[in-house]
Amino acid sequence: MREIYFDRIDSTNLYGKEHLAELEDKTVIFACRQTSGRGRLARSWIDLGGDNLFLSFVLKPSERFADIYSNLSQYLSVILCRLLEKYNVMPEIKWPNDVLVNGGKIAGILAETVMKGNEFKGLVLGVGVNLNVDNGALELVTDKKVTALNLETGHAVECNAFRKKLCDMFFNDYEKFLSEGFSSIEDYYSEHSCFLNSEITVKVFNKEVKGIAKGLTKNGELLLFDGEKDLIINMGDIL
Questions:
Q1: DSSP 38
Q2: Rounded CA gap, 54 and 75, in Å?
Q3: What is the pTM of this model?
Q4: Phi/psi of residue 25, each to 5°?
Q5: Full residue range of the structural domain in which residue 234 is found
Q6: 118 phi and psi, to 5 degrees?
Q7: Residue 74 sits in the same domain as residue 146
Q8: Do 112 and 128 share a domain, yes or no?
Q9: In what order do the strands lie in the sheet with 98-101?
Q10: Are residues 234 and 137 located together in one domain of the fold?
Q11: What contacts 193, CB < 8 A, 6 or more positions away?
Q12: Main-chain dihedrals φ then ψ at residue 92, nearest 5 degrees
């Protein structure tokens, strides 16, 4: 594992994509401050101050894209939850990969696949985790409830120690995940999901779909009953 550190950067994911050709497999890019962080569906990830985690994994598992790579963001959400539990908090997952604590979003994950024509060049898997945030900074986020690990535990969190633990845990089970797929995390993911058996609204592109979240497919897709039929949703955002 090679590590690249920046005091300040626009986006660790963007750097990973722009320099993908020269970066080795399993390179970890991290920064103290991130000025233009991005989340899923073109949303922004707001930098709430120093000593928080902004990190991207550069992954080149093969020369061809495999469907299982689409579940890597869910794999990372499980690894992150397992780490947060070591800090005596109770994390939950909101499909597909948001991590919450006490109903507040504590982390966001973004996976970006890089293709050149039909050739798979690699994948950049980014995560932002609120580790140390002042209550006043939370007022910058007005569209959703957010939280931070220090606010949940009552004490400051050492960012470097958290990062090292996350990287170790990620790569410890990485090869197993590539071999077994979503089934290797399915039980934990389902047990920690906050949306199952609930009536939810899912935004799929510009359309909203309402229904009961019945479960997950073997590939980690959302199984939604809309009152008439079961729908399989592989992309979207629970509102």
A1: B
A2: 18
A3: 0.92
A4: -60, 140
A5: 199-238
A6: -95, 5
A7: yes
A8: yes
A9: 2-9, 27-34, 53-59, 119-129, 104-116, 98-101, 91-94
A10: no
A11: 92, 93, 94, 95, 216
A12: -130, 160
